[in-house]
Amino acid sequence: MNKKEELERWAQLLRYDVVRMISNANSGHPGGSLSAADIAACLYFNEMNIRPDEPDWPDRDRFILSKGHAAPVLYAALARKGYFSIETLKTLRTAGSMLQGHPDIHTPGVDMTTGCLGQGLSAGCGMALSARLDKKSYRVYVMMGCGEMNEGQVWESVMSAAHFKLDNILVILDYNQLQFDGSVREVLNPGSMKKRWEGFNWNVIEINGHDINEILSSFKKAKETKDIPTVIIADTIKGRGVKFIEKDYMWHSLMDNKKFTEYAEQMREELKNADSFYADRLW
Amino acid sequence: MQTASMRTAYGEALVEAGRENKNIVVLEADLSKATKTSLFAKAFPERFFNIGIAEQNMMSMAAGFATCGKVPFATALAVFASMRALEQVRTSVCIGNLNVKIGAPYGGLATAENGPTHQCISDINMMRGLPNMTVLAPSDAVSCKACVHWAVKHKGPVYIRILRDGEPVLYEKKEDVNIENGNRLHEGNDMAIICNGFTSHMALQAAEELTKEGMHVTVHDIFCIKPIAADVILDIAQKCKRIITVEEHNIYGGLGSAVAEVISQSRPVPLKIMGVNDYFSDSGSHKDLLERAGLTVENIIRQVKDFVE
Question: Looking at the 3D structure of chain B, how many domains does it have?
């Protein structure tokens, strides 16, 4: 199995975990979790320099899920990396669980509390400047959402990262074109997202956010870009991988858990029969 | 009475602390000449970050710094630090109990002539409502410095409400200042005044005047409004039987409320809360605005006498 094939399988497994977790919890945000799964797989299983057995390792790369409602895909990646058990995923959103509805810095592997949109890149700027002060080479990865682009603080932080020339920050914009109340155009038309970021003096790379090779090569290009920060605008499909919710903004949040739970079972069967990779990893 | 500038004391304390602790960084929202973080910028340019007029971004950035072992002092006028960026302070900073310090000059009515938009009589209330947040309000330049040094040693978020210029000096040196318990400025058993900030010197003067008339009033200067020193408040309640609180803040949600929360649950005694009576003030000299709010030596004396009878 080559790297691409392996990462595709990890992404698919993260999707399975997301569907299971949300179905189990009977609440959560499937659409934006599923659109981010390929990127999350590439970050956690290839790109980032991290130590799951030492979550607070000072030299680790940081990851901030600024679009915090996609927490399930982050938790899935953390569990699959060994930050905590797969069993823990069953406790999402329940009292006493370490897995809050949105990411909380107390959870092992979570580098910043997020979910109140617009704050993640700001925190990332603080981390990136700390790296510079301490002469450390770790990088800061921030995943943002397209609805999040409505928030004014986003553009404050975009200005800051460019002003301070933070080339150790990489923003990945999960641009699935849908937010809670509809398409980004209908709710608050952003115009050209590419021109926006370029206007703030960022290096902009546009990719298909579901193509593993494109994701990996964009990470590489970002690392090679000096003196200005890079944003990857990833063209993605909300709900990717669960056909009946794809591109349906109504499924930003869980709509019909009976249907969703049936799908989780169906997915389990499909994966079990698909490939030995999944066999002992399903729950 | 000798006076000194609290905001200058803030800037000087940052420099002192920055010399001792290399992890201290200062974040500023384009008012460094006013907040006196300019002093730190000059001493340690590599650890000073002017974020521009973007307080929300600044607070979340401070949170990011704190996760990397830095001790950020995010500085903005009290009105913006406590309200423009309130949700960022809550989410980015307080939920994670991150080690962010917020320096907030121009608290209370101290921006006087700038009018109600820039005055800040609600900050203590806002900050007190946030779990994990410690709320400090020094009363002079010396206690301001003490608060900064105390905040550096304390792990977790701290809000420091600072005033402006010309505050009467109440303490000789910062070692005299007891941040956690507050300081006794005057002793007496007839009544107690619990005060903070700019009103503390007024309360002291009032007590001295009242002594001449044979009334003996305790005056206690509180720096730490949250967590408030409940034992100290209860001792005062037991000894003095009546308490007046005085603050340059809305009568709702500030020092008076904090004192009421303590005594009403353990040792109820009559309480009178002096402050800004729930209105937006207008432009004017600090002195005129304080007079309008009834925050004067004369009015404190009057209120004490009324309360006894």
Answer: 2
Residues B224, B272, single domain; the answer is: yes
Contact B91 A119 (CB under 8 A): yes
Q: How far apart are CA A204 and CA A197, in angstroms?
A: 7
Q: Which of A106, A133, A140 to mutate to test the interface with B (most CBs of B within 10 A)?
A: A133
Region of residue A179 (phi > 0: left; psi between -120 and 50: alpha; otherwise: beta): beta
Q: State which of B120, B148, B168 marks the end of a domain.
A: B168
* Cβ within 8 Å, pair A104-B95: yes
Residue B91 counted as domain residue: yes
Residues B193, B112 share a domain: no
Residue B137 sits in the same domain as residue B189: no
Give the pLDDT confidence score for residue B1 in this predicted structure: 83
Same domain, B19 and B86: yes
Does B47 have pLDDT greater than 70? yes
Query: What CATH number belongs to A3-279?
Result: 3.40.50.970
- Give per-residue pLDDT as tens, A15-48: 999 999 999 999 999 999 999 999 999 999 999 9
Contact status, residue A202 vs residue A231, Cβ threshold 8 Å: yes
Is the residue at B175 inside a domain? Answer: no
Hey, is the C-beta of B51 within 8 angstroms of any chain A C-beta? yes
Cβ–Cβ of B56/A116 closer than 8 Å?
no
Q: Can you give the pTM of this predicted structure?
A: 0.97
Whether the complex's predicted ipTM surpasses the cut of 0.95: yes
H helix runs in chain B, sequence order? 6-20, 32-35, 38-43, 55-67, 78-79, 86-88, 123-128, 141-153, 199-212, 230-240, 255-266, 286-292, 297-308
Contact A161, A122 (CB under 8 A): no
pLDDT in tens, B122-155: 999 999 999 999 999 999 999 999 999 999 999 9
Which of the residues B55, B167, B247, B248 is marked catalytic?
B55
| Nearest CB neighbour to B61, from listed A58, A116, A122 | A122
Residue B129 in contact with partner chain A when CB distance is under 8 A? no
Residue B309 has a pLDDT of: 64
B263 contact A CB<8A: no
Q: Judge if B8 and B155 occupy the same domain.
A: yes
Q: What is the mean pLDDT of residues B57-83?
A: 98
Q: Domain range holding B241? A: 180-308
